[in-house]
Amino acid sequence: MKKTFLFLLSFLSLHADDMGALLFHGNCVTCHYEVESKSAPAMIEVRKRYKAAFPLKKDFVKYLSEWVHNPSAEKSIMQDAIAKYELMPQLAYEKDVLEDIAAYIYDTDFTHIHSYHKPK
Ligand code: HEC
């Protein structure tokens, strides 16, 4: 309850960039840790692979958000990850939300301590 309230508060006052950060940390890190691969490939690894395939931000954001919107083995650029962890489940997010998250991933260097702090 308290968390939902905080989330809504943040929702009203944040820009798209911060929204991406908030949503990423609220939703993706359950499976994707930033630098350690446990139940899913670490985000630093996903980012590296996607950046190699899509150097331009607009291509990166488009492909990643579309893939997460509708995960498919055929369109995966991380076949080895599917073999290791199984295909990522589909999550119920809107496309524009996923675009904000994808833009945040593109812009974030997960090797350094970055500015986002989880609300307590
Ligand atoms: C329930 C666990 C789970 C959650 C939650 C989750 N993922 Fe994943 N994700 C995985 C697993 C497992 C893989 C590796 C297998 C694969 O690629 O399908 C993966 C792979 C990926 C890939 C690589 C796709 C490819 O080309 O194969 C991307 C990009 C990705 N996740 C983004 C996200 C984003 C963004 C979020 C949050 C909105 C998210 N994931 C939330 C489990 C999860």
Walk me through what this model shows:
This protein is an all-alpha fold. The protein has one domain (2-107): Cytochrome c-like domain (Cytochrome Bc1 Complex, Chain D, domain 2, Orthogonal Bundle), CATH 1.10.760.10. It is built from six helices and no strands. The chain has helices at residues 2-13, 16-28, 43-53, 57-69, 79-85, 95-107. The protein is globular, with a radius of gyration of 14 Å. The chain starts with a helix and ends in a 13-residue tail after the last helix. The mean pLDDT is 86. The structure holds heme C. Heme C binds next to helix 2, helix 4 and helix 5.
Amino- and carboxy-terminal Cα gap: 13 Å
- What is the share of helical residues? 55-70%
Which ranges are low-confidence, i.e. pLDDT below 50, for 5 or more consecutive residues?
none
CATH class assignment: Mainly Alpha
Q: Enter the CATH topology name.
A: Cytochrome Bc1 Complex, Chain D, domain 2
Please tell me what the overall shape is: globular
Class from secondary-structure proportions: mainly alpha
Ligand set: heme C
Strand content: under 5%
Number of domains: 1
Q: Biggest sheet, open or closed, and with what strands and sense? A: none
Say how many strands there are: 0
CATH architecture descriptor text:
Orthogonal Bundle
CATH homologous superfamily descriptor: Cytochrome c-like domain
Number of helices: 6
Order of helices and strands: HHHHHH
Mean pLDDT: 86
Cα radius of gyration in angstroms: 14 Å
